């Protein structure tokens, strides 16, 4: 067994004070101040259990954009954002991100703006996640969308987390993945009896991103680790009791709550909190029960207290209880690589700022979209794979800086250009390497060969285009080719497939010789 916490994938807990089981307004204020400066199982575990849990689904929905996918309104001195894609559970796409982010900036720069409210259209979802189908399709051909979506989404998450104006998220209905990023970093998060919260990314070869590395370890104990690895779903009041939400209000009172908020003349954070408290106290029609995980909190804190996934699995096996067996059965359905990455992400992020966490998560996202597990996970949700495939060296590779073939150097080289997504970029909304690095990609991993470093050909417009071809270890991928010239435009990219064919032909000739 590989031991992430004892080798290259070191993910040991760092010392430092941690709050209780509540990711609250204080933690948001803290990182604001810092900013100013198929049905098969993954064969990870052989449990012998015959119980079949509900098939876990991705937090991402697959859909396209539309002109009215998000509604932005200014009502008196308040801004209102409505995610307007109810037919696809208000899933988040790049078009919506590019509308919301500048509007938040405009409201923040307007001295009269006193509050921003964000909600989802319909009664089924606040936001069920991001548009990953487009990302997977783009990633297969080396398109920039796999960079742009995550980069701009994380920049929006950072804007919300460092927002100076009171931000109220009405998370009524399904709230997963990208929807969590739009809400959990805000000052106020209002759950209802219809709220369904989860971070199930490990089921599709990803990790709990959108700042998950920041808020999950701050839920207290090992609850965040448990939620991240298992994708456990919290519902209704449990979202509040876990510390994800700050308030609970019945869904039939949301319309009145919104009217009360919009009617406020001087919407200071303290006054907003009092109104939310008032509506929470009025929400008595929904029975209040004990936290769904309360009977297992001690087990969670003890059994999920490990530096490696193997250690956690061992703890669960040794425990032997019915609950522990159920957790083993759940974990057996997840990507082993994703679980290892996720655990390290959470352990390392315990003492990091939100900005630094998002920088780390961008790097992880770019490695993930080049990985076999991600495409197979999106395609079939669950596939058979062995833990031995998730080696320490592979996990370590996810944490390495990205490689710019335009620079011909690693992205952490201070002599040329820094990482394509960093704290400065988050704050200034600019790319440090703009004009230099068209495609940031991971370095070839063990078992892969870079057959052709640069392969040049002249196009119709006599434009010299250099591309890089990497033969992937995954059987279905063949050659991945990336345009490496900053002059590449859409016309040139249309002929990328031709260039890929040329590179493939060169590879065949080399193999014959």
Automatic annotation (TrEMBL):
Pathway: Amino-acid degradation; L-valine degradation. Keywords: Branched-chain amino acid catabolism, Glycoprotein, Hydrolase, Mitochondrion, Signal. Residues 9-21 have a biased composition (Basic and acidic residues). Transmembrane segments: none annotated. GO terms for molecular function: 3-hydroxyisobutyryl-CoA hydrolase activity. It catalyses: 3-hydroxy-2-methylpropanoyl-CoA + H2O = 3-hydroxy-2-methylpropanoate + CoA + H(+). CDD domains: crotonase-like, TFP_LU_ECD_Qvr. GO terms for cellular component: mitochondrion. SUPFAM superfamilies: ClpP/crotonase. Its EC number is 3.1.2.4. GO terms for biological process: L-valine catabolic process; regulation of synaptic transmission, cholinergic; sleep. PANTHER family: 3-HYDROXYISOBUTYRYL-COA HYDROLASE, MITOCHONDRIAL, 3-HYDROXYISOBUTYRYL-COA HYDROLASE-RELATED. This is 3-hydroxyisobutyryl-CoA hydrolase, mitochondrial. It comes from Magallana gigas (Pacific oyster).
